[in-house]
């Protein structure tokens, strides 16, 4: 069974990337000749996703134009948050409503995605169907280029937990269904609220990534990642 739907979170303000993001939205930043957004799109399409929703806010018209000019095998739609940012949870809830009861990927383009992740996205899908629970792709802090990350979660026999000594970072890739968001009777909320609820219910599983983790969250990280050669 294949997951055919995906949601890309592209509505962030990119404040920590200023002045680079003053005139260009962060997802359209180019690394190694490919924008962050296109890297996320390519990973989903190369896995077999054929319907993608992308939420937009800051300089969203540039992303709309980029998608319009992009030759893509997938149907790509825009979820407009230009008037009001809905945070990650609210953005996914709105952007994925057309997916109905189907499970879907949610991907953050801040991570430097490449075909190196194809095997892991396939394994994540298998993990999801094995447990029939929302599933996160996590990576040990030691594999992150940015050593300032404190960690988000732990893994205990595939079950995601949290404590004061979190050893894993969330890579920005997950699988979920809309019914896990439907219980939040508000438009603006974070995925952290969703994960906290799932963890309390022992209803969140994870898969460990073995890839070196490149996450574009600051201007310093942009300069450091851009200096690496070659970039996949």
Low-confidence sequence ranges:
none
Radius of gyration: 17 Å
The helix tally amounts to: 7
Look at the helices and sheets and give the structural class: alpha/beta
SSE ordering: EEEHEHEHEHEEEEHHEH
Mean pLDDT: 94
Strand neighbour order, sheet with most strands: 5-4-1-6-10-7-11
What amount of the residues lies in strands? 15-25%
Molecular shape: globular
Q: Residue share in helices?
A: 25-40%
Question: How many strands in all?
Answer: 11
The major pleated sheet works out as:
7 strands, mixed
How far do the termini sit from each other?
29 Å
Would you write up a description of this structure?
About 30% of the residues lie in helices and about 20% in strands. By secondary structure, the chain is α/β, with parallel strands linked by helices. Helix 3 crosses helix 6. It is globular. The two termini are about 30 Å apart.
In short:
With 232 residues, this protein is α/β, with parallel strands linked by helices.
Supply the key terms.
232 residues; alpha/beta; 7-stranded mixed β-sheet; two-stranded antiparallel ribbon
Write the layout of secondary structure elements.
Elements: E1 5-10, E2 30-31, E3 34-35, H1 36-47, E4 51-56, H2 60-69, E5 75-80, H3 87-95, E6 104-107, H4 118-131, E7 135-140, E8 154-156, E9 159-161, E10 168-176, H5 179-182, H6 191-200, E11 205-209, H7 219-226
Parallel strand pairs: 1-4, 1-6, 4-5, 7-11
Antiparallel strand pairs: 2-3, 6-10, 7-10, 8-9
């Amino acid at each position: 069974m294949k997951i055919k739907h995906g949601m890309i979170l592209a509505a962030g303000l990119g404040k920590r990337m200023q002045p680079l993001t003053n005139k260009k939205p962060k997802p359209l930043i180019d690394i190694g000749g490919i924008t962050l957004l296109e890297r996320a799109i390519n990973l989903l399409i190369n896995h077999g996703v054929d319907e993608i929703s992308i939420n937009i806010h800051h300089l969203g018209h540039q992303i709309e134009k980029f998608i319009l000019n992009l030759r893509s095998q997938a149907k790509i739609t825009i979820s407009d948050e230009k008037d009001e940012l809905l945070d990650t949870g609210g953005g996914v809830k709105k952007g994925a409503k057309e997916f109905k009861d189907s499970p879907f990927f949610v991907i953050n383009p801040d991570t430097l995605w490449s075909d190196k992740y194809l095997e892991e996205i396939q394994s994540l899908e298998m993990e999801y169907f094995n447990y029939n629970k929302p599933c996160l792709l996590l990576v040990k802090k030691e594999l992150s280029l940015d050593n300032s990350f404190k960690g988000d979660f732990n893994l205990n026999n595939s079950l995601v937990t949290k404590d004061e000594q979190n050893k894993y970072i969330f890579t920005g890739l997950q699988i979920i269904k809309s019914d896990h968001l439907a219980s939040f009777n508000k438009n603006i909320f974070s995925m952290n609220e969703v994960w906290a609820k799932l963890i309390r219910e022992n209803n969140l599983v994870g898969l460990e990534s073995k890839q070196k983790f490149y996450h574009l969250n600051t201007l310093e990280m942009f300069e450091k990642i851009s200096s690496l050669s070659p970039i996949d």
